[in-house]
Recover the amino acids of this structure.
């Protein structure tokens, strides 16, 4: 097993973690990736090398995802088919938890092992809110709940290294992309409860709330944008056809047909770009099978809300789209593209 620690501008807590890991299991290789910290931090990394760690250095800051992929690539070339456990450098992952993840990797091949924090006790508000938000979005998008989507303590079996080097993303979004890509690649998850440790209100974190959150949510934002344009088109056509025909069924079907063709083109080109390798003759029938299901559901819900309950058509349409949004994203990611 190799312990991989991506590190940017670390302090003495990195050396304390290395010391504790060496005391627990002195023979475990420790690989540290200095993600462009600069000369001011050279002494800390030199001390890590003197303690027996291998240190790889990026000339400039490239992001946590890039640092992880540098480490994964090194292990697959030099690690003699080692399993890998990734931990953060700020002292928030305890050595005993790191080794518990390692044991779980050995017992659960072809699984991503997640060190799952329970968020009990005093937790910084931004950390509690951030994880709650990503947990909810991930569950809505995939139908698979995960307790801790933002954990940096993760374990991987050696036969996953090639795939790990191919997952898109260079910064904090890489770890979310990994969770999104794993089911399609055939990997499931195992969650191992770990201690929730925040030091000095998590001041050492290099996570940028606005910029990095936008990167993490970018796959969902692209889908929301595409769906938003399609929904506007669908809205306009629905009311236009309803005005022309006074027939709700014809209006729903006509509006959905045109907007779905637009949506398929947008999603294939800009949202689920990894699906461009799937031939249109495969993805198109899958997509329009989904369209038929959604169209039936759309009509049924609109009829229920508008015709049966008497909710105004505009409000009924909004409610219907909210119900079907998460379902559509999940099916398109898993089965269409």
């Amino acid at each position: 097993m190799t312990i991989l620690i991506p590190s940017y501008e670390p302090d003495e807590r990195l050396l304390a973690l290395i010391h504790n890991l060496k005391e627990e299991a002195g023979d475990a290789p420790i690989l540290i990736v200095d993600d462009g910290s600069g000369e001011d931090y050279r002494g800390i990394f030199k001390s890590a090398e003197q303690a027996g760690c291998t240190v790889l250095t990026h000339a400039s800051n490239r992001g946590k995802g890039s640092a992880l992929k540098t480490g994964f690539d090194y292990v697959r070339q030099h690690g003699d088919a080692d399993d890998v456990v990734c931990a953060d450098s700020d002292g928030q992952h305890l050595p005993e938890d790191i080794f518990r993840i390692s044991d779980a990797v050995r017992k659960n091949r072809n699984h991503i092992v997640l060190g799952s924090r329970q968020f009990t006790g005093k937790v910084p508000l931004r950390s509690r809110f951030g994880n709650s938000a990503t947990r909810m979005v991930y569950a809505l998008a995939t139908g698979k709940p995960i307790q801790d989507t933002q954990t940096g303590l993760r374990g991987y079996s050696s036969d996953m290294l090639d795939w790990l080097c191919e997952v898109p993303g260079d910064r904090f979004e890489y770890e979310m992309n990994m969770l999104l890509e794993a089911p399609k690649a055939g990997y499931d998850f195992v969650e191992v409860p770990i201690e929730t440790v925040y030091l000095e209100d998590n001041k050492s974190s290099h996570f940028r709330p606005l910029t990095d959150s936008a990167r993490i949510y970018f796959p969902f934002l692209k889908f929301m944008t595409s769906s938003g344009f399609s929904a506007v088109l669908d809205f306009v056509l629905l009311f236009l056809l309803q005005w022309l025909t006074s027939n709700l069924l014809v209006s729903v079907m006509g509006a959905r047909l045109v907007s779905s063709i637009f949506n398929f083109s947008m999603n294939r080109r800009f949202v689920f770009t990894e699906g461009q390798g799937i031939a249109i003759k495969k993805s198109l029938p899958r997509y329009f099978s989904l369209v038929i299901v959604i169209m039936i559901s759309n009509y049924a819900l609109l009829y229920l809300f508008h015709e049966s309950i008497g909710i105004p058509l505009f409000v009924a349409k909004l409610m219907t789209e909210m119900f079907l949004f998460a379902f559509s994203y999940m099916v398109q990611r898993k089965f269409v593209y």
